[in-house]
Each structure stands twice: as structure tokens, then as C-alpha cells.
TrEMBL record, chain A:
Entry-linked CDD domains: TM_PBP1_transp_AraH_like (cd06579)
GO CC entries: plasma membrane
Membrane topology: Multi-pass membrane protein
InterPro entries: ABC_transp_permease
The protein, known as: ABC transporter permease
Alphabetical keyword list: Cell membrane, Membrane, Transmembrane, Transmembrane helix
Single Gene Ontology MF annotation: transmembrane transporter activity
Pfam families hit by this protein: BPD_transp_2
Organism: Pelagibacterium lacus
Domain of life: Bacteria
Record has Cell membrane as a keyword: yes
Compartment annotation: Cell membrane
TM regions (residue ranges): 21-44, 50-71, 78-99, 105-126, 138-157, 177-201, 232-250, 286-303, 309-328
From TrEMBL, chain B:
Species in which this protein is naturally found: Pelagibacterium lacus
Signal peptide region: none
Name the UniProt record assigns to this protein: Sugar ABC transporter ATP-binding protein
Subcellular location per the Swiss-Prot or TrEMBL entry: Cell membrane
Stated family: Belongs to the ABC transporter superfamily.
Lineage of the organism: Bacteria, Pseudomonadati, Pseudomonadota, Alphaproteobacteria, Hyphomicrobiales
GO cellular component: plasma membrane
């Protein structure tokens, strides 16, 4: 109390000189990881490897940007991996059937993309609507839709693999393999999504509402915020992000099966949490999420480039990193609490 | 009863208690004898709950001694005093909703054999206890299927199964209907006849008169008197509970113009916890709402601003009928509501001051679709000056602010909406006297500016010191409206405790 009241009046927060530990911490960890990677194998820092690494982190990264909104507003979406799979499947079916009417060019690809976006928005809305209006916990709703989406793609592929017609692949290929001024297209898209996400979360009323709801839903309601609407919108944003990720994922392999996007939901949530967003909501960091997503891919990449640890232990190392990251964040919070006790 | 007489089981001697630097109890003596009902009464904040917590070991006294069976003891914390026969039934019942009646009665001290529960034995014992209380509750029923009164009975059964020698009950009848209260009293008398010492806290003076043998009155943490119930009239008790002088804590009152327009009219409002309430608010007026906790004052306000459903009745703002579906619409109409639950409903504790201040009005800080931080900073500076908010800087988490600064921040947040009508629920709960005074002056200044203000408060002094008129509520109804010289603590207490009620109001409520 004494520290809080030591000075007359309230000075504006000095944002520019303050270090945001929640974002800064993961950033330091990422830099350390990169230095380690370089030390173990100088090929890590090659342009080709970096481009490959960033491209691969784009899928999870884009989905994780959406997940940042959902989690910040106090929700959770477990269905994103299955959603990506079913959207991939439907996209491929739509494009294959459209060859007859719109040909094998860009037009067909655009139709496929439109279908993807429509499906993503719809799936997100369903998740959001059932959570808010249906008053079912997000965990349960999205656990349910996760199973539904996963089995839908298996059904559509008839237990096998849905393949994109080879005629269209040429038109669609650049979306994954192309580049803009030397930067791979997926990385460009990832960057744009992240910037858009950052602006929406930090510079709009909607973003402020997300944080308020995740922080305390009752306060939000007493502050004239339409809680259900904002919550639902976070799931819609999540759906949109999944569809964007799918659009750049499909040309990579040109196929979809029941094993597409398996465990993406966990990687996305891990990226968000490593990035410093709190799982219980109220505090979201898009920048941290981006770093988290890159970190997860970097771990796998480094294991690929060295033989100190078996590549099969990728998941184990990721797991250790996730737990360590959260432990460090909690430790931070603990220190603040101790400080507060001492101050009052 | 004579056989137990004058034998104090549990006594408190010269107990004082401070929280930090705030003293809440000053050298209080209290004792309870076997086979008596000792009522503990006093205004909100008089120190009753603190005394109970000390008597049951939940809080340790700052100084003074607790005497059990004639010997000084140090009660163990965390409710372990139950093992010593001191059992508390809290106002909000402490039962696990999904357990059965039998499981609840034995919770925490289950009978086992070789590590396994003796379910049958416990069931039989639970049944035996319930039978001895003469209540018919199936021991297999889940707690969440029981009525509040039955839950109360389960709490009593639980107390008996713990062989309570001292039973402390915090407002046990607050949630009971008159019929249930009657059954409950029978149980209390039964326990009393068995020699249990009972401490009974209630705001309902008539109940205190019927049930208790002795009465102890606390006021502002001081022991005012302990008397035999027969020696006093309810009026005399009400006088003892209040009876303070008004200090200069309060700014002078500026009466609104007699012909000032009515800005808010409420007619026969019915909502959850509200049973037909009517009142009107004039421009520039401060209208107080007094009553006991749970009398429906907050429910009235929350229904008006659209936080809960209005079942019947009419609300008019400046003559125009309105029915808000959410707080946003109320704000658009110039009405703002400040909740009494600062921490749970009013402020986001884990973020800084600025986002809290502008949360209600964030739309006004948007330019071309994006937040304009400069305009938010400006609002923060404005509010800081106007309401004298003190913090190191705007990034300090609101949870770390003192209660007074939180309250001022909430005032700032509400006033950002530029309202005509301000409803403030408990304006100074948990706030030091200095800040209280500041807030009173702010409220008076707002009224002088022509804003119309409703102050809901359980602190009678506050209602009296601020209001031009006072509406008194009891059990979801308006029992009286006081004006001018009628606004006294005794008078408010009489209406609030149900000793007095306007015929007019009763008729209107039943109509």
C-alpha cells in the first residue's frame, strides 16, 4: 500500500522503457536455442535452414495466433487440428470437382480457398455458439468437435487419403513453395497474420474486451461488454486462422488424410503458453505466441541437425521446454507476490 | 435450565483485535453459559463476525484471553476448535452440494474400519440424529436437492454429531421463511434444553427478543452492554445499537429544488429478491437506500440497470418508460451503476489503472477503428486529478491499490460515462475514514452539479449523513421513506427490522 501511494497522482505507464518479461523471456530462450543450434551444427544458420524452419512453423504459428485470442478470453479450442484436417479434405474435394467448370487454373484454387474460409468461420462459430449460448465448457465442446471433425475427414477420405488432382497442383504450388522477395510465402502470411492479430488484440476495443473477459467475466458484464458475442468471435477468429493455415498447408503435400494435423491443437496451445499468454485467460501476447511457435519448430530442427539426442525424443524435449517455460513464468509471478508482501 | 445456570462454558476476556493498523474490537468481554441462547447484535461492521471468528479459533485475538471451562486456552486455527466442542454454522452454509445428507454429517470425521467407510453405521447414526431432531430428511438425499431450511437442519445435525457444547450461529434465519424459522427455533430450544450453549447473531430484533436469554450489543468494536433479554424493549435495543453523534465527516446538504424534475421513477418493480418496490428520484437529489443485508436493495438497482430480469413494474427515466436489457443500454440513457463488489464485479485486479478506467467507455477512445492511447492517457490524468487517485503509475496492478484508491478509480470509471443518474452501492465499504470523507464530498459535489444520486449503504451513518431522503427496505419491499428530521438511526432501524412499516407500502406491495 505504501509503495502504491508514495507519490501524488498517477503517472502514465512508461511503456517504452519497460521490459515485458512475458515476451522478453521467451525471446531470450529462443535466441539461446538458436546459438545452441549454431554451435552444434553451423548449418543451422544457413539461409536454407532458417527459411525451412520458419516455413514449417507458419502452420502452427498462424493457428496459435487464433488460439491466443481464444485463450486470452478465457476459452480453449482443442478442435483446431481436426478442423484443419477436415477443411483440407473438403478443400481438395471442392477443387477436384470444380475442375470441370472452372478449369485447372487460379480460379479453382480461389474457389477452394473460399470454401476453406467459409468452413473455418462456420466451424469456429459452432464452437463459440455452443460454448456461450449452450453454456457448455469450451473444453467439452471442442473435445466433441475435435472427434467429429477427425472422423469426418476419415469418412470423406474413406479411410484413406484424399489427393489433389495433379492438374491443379501447378497453379496452387506457389502458395507453399513460392516466395516474395526471397521470403517464403507461408512466412509472409504468418507475418501478416501475426501483425493483424497484434493490432486487433492490442489496438482495438475488441482486444481489450478479450482481455477483460478472460480476466474476470463478471467485471466484463458489469462493464457493458457483450461477453457472449466477444467470446464467440474469438472462436470465429480461431476458425479463420485455421482456414488460412490450411490454405498454405494443402499445396505442401497436396493431400489430406485422417493423420493430417494430428496434435496441432496441443502444439498451438503450447506455442501460446510458451509465449507468455496465461492459460486461465486475461493476458495475451501475440509476439510471444509467434516466438513460441518458432521455438517448437526450432527444437525439432536442431535435433534433426545433430545426433546428440535422438530425433525420436523430439516430443520429450518439447515437453520439457513447455513445462520449463511455464515454470519460469510462475517463478516470475511468485517473485512479484513476495515483493508485494514485503512492500505493504 | 436452572441446573446449568451461571456456568460459562466459553468466555472471552478483554479481547482486542486489529487488522493491520485498523482496530476492529476494543477489549470486549463476552461469555456464554450452558443451556442459554446468547444473542449478539450490532450494526454491520460493529465487530460481530470478528468476535465469532475469535471465539471459534478462526482468528487469533491481538490481545485478551479465551476461557474454556474456566481455563485460559489458545484455540487451534482452521476450525479445529470443533474437536473441542465449539461449532460454528456460518451464514453461507458450508455443505458440499454433491454429497448425501449422511456423508455431509460425517464429513471430515468418517467412521472407518480397516480403512474402509462404515457406510451403514454412519447412515444409521445420521438417521438417529435427524430423528432426535424430529425432522424428516432422507439420509440418502443429495444436499443440492434440499431446501435451504433442510440444509440448515443438516448443519445442526452435523453440529450435534460433533457433540457441540457451544454452537455459534451467524444469522441462521436470514434465508428462512417464517414457517421454517419457527421449526428452526424449536430445534434451537431442544438443543438449549440439552445444555448446549448457543450464540446467536441476528439482525431481526423480534427474533432476538423471542429466542434469546441474554443480549450483547456491539457498536464500532466496543462492548456497549450485556443485558437480560426481559429487561429491554426492542426500541431500547435499537437505540443501543446506534446512538452515535454525526460528525463533520459529511458535507453540508444542499436541498434540491422542490420543483426539480423527476429523473427516475420506479413503479411496482418486481424482480428476483424484489417484491414490488416504488420510488422516485429528483434531479440533484441524493436518495439513500437503507436496510439490512439481503433486504433487496442491490437487487432493485441491478434490476433497474438491466443486470437482472425485471418481472413486473415500470421504470421511467425522465418520464420515458425504459426496460434495459444490459448495462450498456442503461449507460446510453445516462444511468450508471457502481457495484458494491469492487473486486469481484467492479475492477480487473490483475491489470493496470488505465484499462480499468476506460473499460466502460472504450468506444470513446477509438479513432479510425483503433484505440487512441493518447486519449486514454488524457482520461486517466483527468480522473486522477478529479478523484485524487494515488498510485505509483498507471501500470500498477489495480489489485495492489488500497481499497480507497480502488473505489476512487471505480468512481472515475463510472463518471467517464458522463451520467445524469449515478447509483452507488456501498460507496465506502472497506475504506479508511479519510478516503470516506473525500468520497462523501465528491458525492455531494456531484449532486450539487445537478446529477441525481442513489446511495445504497448498510452503514446507517452514511445514509443519514448524505441523503436528502431515505428509502428503507426489508425483505424485498419498501417499508418506509423518511425525509428531513425523520432520518434518524432509530427510525431507520425500526423500519429495517420490521418493527414499523408503512401501510401504504404494504398495500402497494401486495397489490
Amino acid at each position: 500500500m505504501s509503495t502504491a501511494q508514495a507519490h501524488e497522482g498517477v503517472k502514465p505507464a512508461k511503456k517504452r522503457f519497460r521490459i515485458d518479461y512475458h515476451t522478453f523471456g521467451p525471446f531470450v530462450a529462443l535466441v539461446a536455442l538458436c546459438i545452441l543450434g549454431f554451435a552444434l551444427n553451423p548449418a543451422f544458420a544457413s539461409e536454407g535452414n532458417i527459411a525451412n524452419l520458419l516455413t514449417r512453423s507458419a502452420f502452427i504459428g498462424i493457428i496459435a495466433v487464433g488460439a491466443t485470442f481464444v485463450i486470452t478470453a478465457g476459452g480453449i479450442d482443442l478442435s483446431v487440428g481436426s478442423m484443419a484436417a477436415v477443411i483440407s479434405g473438403v478443400m481438395i474435394i471442392v477443387m477436384n470437382t470444380m475442375i470441370g467448370t472452372t478449369g485447372t487454373g487460379v480460379a479453382t484454387v480461389l474457389v477452394g480457398c473460399l470454401a476453406s474460409v467459409a468452413l473455418g468461420l462456420l466451424a469456429g462459430f459452432v464452437n463459440g455458439f455452443m460454448t456461450t449460448k449452450g453454456k457448455i465448457e469450451a473444453f467439452i465442446v471442442t473435445l466433441g468437435t475435435m472427434g467429429i471433425f477427425r472422423s469426418l475427414v476419415t469418412y470423406l477420405a474413406d479411410g484413406g487419403t484424399l489427393s489433389l488432382a495433379f492438374d491443379i497442383r501447378d497453379a496452387y504450388r506457389p502458395v507453399y513453395y513460392g516466395n516474395l522477395f526471397g521470403v517464403p510465402i507461408p512466412v509472409v502470411v504468418f507475418g501478416l497474420v501475426a501483425i493483424a492479430g497484434w493490432i486487433v488484440l492490442n489496438r482495438t476495443a475488441f482486444g481489450r474486451y478479450c482481455m477483460a473477459i478472460g480476466s474476470n467475466e463478471t467485471v466484463a458484464r458489469y462493464s457493458a461488454i457483450k461477453v457472449d458475442r466477444v467470446r464467440t468471435l474469438t472462436y470465429v477468429i480461431q476458425g479463420l486462422c485455421v482456414s488460412v493455415a490450411t490454405i498454405i498447408y494443402v499445396p505442401r503435400l497436396g493431400s489430406a488424410s485422417s493423420s493430417t494435423g494430428v496434435l496441432w491443437e496441443l502444439e498451438a496451445i503450447a506455442a501460446v503458453i510458451i509465449g507468455g499468454t496465461m492459460l486461465k485467460g486475461g493476458y495475451g501476447r501475440i509476439g510471444g505466441t509467434v516466438i513460441g511457435a518458432i521455438m517448437l519448430t526450432t527444437i525439432g530442427n536442431i535435433l534433426n541437425l545433430t545426433d546428440i539426442i535422438s530425433n525420436y525424443l523430439n516430443g520429450a524435449v518439447q515437453g520439457v521446454i513447455i513445462i520449463a517455460a511455464v515454470w519460469l513464468q510462475r517463478g516470475n509471478l511468485g517473485r512479484i507476490n513476495i515483493f508485494r508482501k514485503a512492500g505493504s | 435450565m436452572a441446573e446449568f445456570a451461571s456456568q460459562a462454558i466459553l468466555a472471552a476476556s478483554r479481547i482486542s483485535k486489529s487488522f493491520g493498523e485498523v482496530p476492529v474490537l476494543f477489549s470486549v468481554d463476552f461469555d456464554v453459559r450452558a443451556g442459554e441462547v446468547h444473542a449478539l447484535i450490532g450494526e454491520n461492521g460493529a465487530g460481530k463476525s470478528t468476535l465469532i471468528k475469535i471465539l471459534s479459533g478462526l482468528e487469533a485475538p491481538t490481545s485478551g484471553t479465551i476461557i474454556l471451562d474456566g481455563a485460559p486456552v489458545r484455540l487451534p486455527p482452521h476450525g479445529e476448535a470443533e474437536a473441542m466442542g465449539i461449532v460454528v454454522i456460518h451464514q453461507e452454509l458450508n455443505l458440499a452440494e454433491h454429497l448425501t445428507v449422511a456423508e455431509s454429517i460425517f464429513l471430515g470425521r468418517e467412521w472407518t474400519r480397516f480403512g474402509f467407510l462404515r457406510r451403514g453405521d454412519m447412515q444409521n447414526e445420521a438417521q438417529r440424529i435427524l430423528d432426535s431432531l424430529d425432522v424428516a430428511i432422507d439420509t440418502n438425499r443429495r444436499i443440492n436437492t434440499l431446501s435451504v431450511a433442510d440444509k440448515q437442519m443438516v448443519e445442526i445435525a452435523k453440529a450435534i454429531s460433533r457433540e457441540a457444547r457451544v454452537l455459534i450461529m451467524d444469522e441462521p434465519t436470514a434465508v428462512l421463511t417464517p414457517a421454517e424459522t419457527k421449526t428452526f427455533f424449536e430445534q434451537v430450544r431442544r438443543l438449549k434444553a440439552k445444555g448446549v450453549a448457543i450464540v446467536f447473531i441476528s439482525h431481526k430484533l423480534d427474533e432476538v427478543m423471542t429466542l434469546s436469554d441474554r443480549i450483547t450489543v456491539l457498536r464500532d468494536g466496543q462492548l456497549i452492554a450485556t443485558v437480560e433479554t426481559g429487561d429491554l424493549t426492542p426500541d431500547a435495543i435499537a437505540e443501543m445499537m446506534v446512538g452515535r453523534e454525526l460528525s463533520n465527516l459529511y458535507p453540508p446538504k444542499h436541498e434540491p429544488d422542490v420543483d426539480a424534475p423527476l429523473v427516475l421513477e420506479v413503479d411496482g418493480l418486481v424482480a428476483l429478491g424484489v417484491r414490488g418496490v416504488s420510488f422516485a428520484l429528483r434531479q440533484g437529489e441524493i436518495l439513500g437506500f437503507a436496510g439490512l443485508i439481503g433486504s433487496g436493495r442491490t437487487a432493485v438497482m441491478e434490476a433497474i440497470v438491466g443486470l437482472s430480469d425485471v418481472h413486473a413494474g415500470q421504470i421511467r427515466v425522465r418520464g420515458k418508460p425504459v426496460r434495459f436489457s444490459g448495462i450498456g443500454e442503461a449507460i446510453d440513457a445516462g444511468l450508471v451503476y457502481m457495484t458494491k463488489d469492487r473486486k469481484g464485479k467492479g475492477l480487473l485486479l490483475n491489470i493496470g489503472l488505465q484499462p480499468n478506467l476506460t473499460l466502460l467507455t472504450i468506444k470513446r477512445h477509438i479513432r479510425h477503428g483503433f484505440l487512441n492511447e493518447a486519449s486514454e492517457v488524457e482520461a486517466m490524468e483527468r480522473a486522477t486529478r478529479r478523484f485524487d487517485i494515488r498510485a505509483r503509475d498507471a501500470s500498477v496492478k489495480v489489485g495492489q491499490l488500497s481499497g480507497g484508491n480502488q473505489q476512487k478509480l471505480m468512481l472515475g470509471k463510472a463518471m467517464e460515462t458522463d451520467p445524469d443518474i449515478v447509483i452507488i452501492d456501498e460507496p465506502t465499504r472497506g475504506i479508511d475514514v479519510g478516503t470516506k470523507q473525500q468520497i462523501y464530498h465528491i458525492i455531494a459535489a456531484l449532486a450539487k452539479e445537478g446529477k441525481s444520486i442513489i446511495v445504497v449503504s448498510s452503514e446507517m451513518q452514511e445514509v443519514i449523513g448524505l441523503s436528502h431522503r431515505v428509502v428503507v427496505m426489508r425483505e424485498g419491499r419498501r417499508t418506509g421513506t423518511l425525509e428531513g428530521a425523520e432520518i434518524t438511526e432509530g427510525e431507520i432501524m425500526r423500519y429495517a427490522a420490521g418493527l414499523k412499516g408503512e401501510e401504504d407500502d404494504v398495500h402497494r406491495a401486495s397489490a
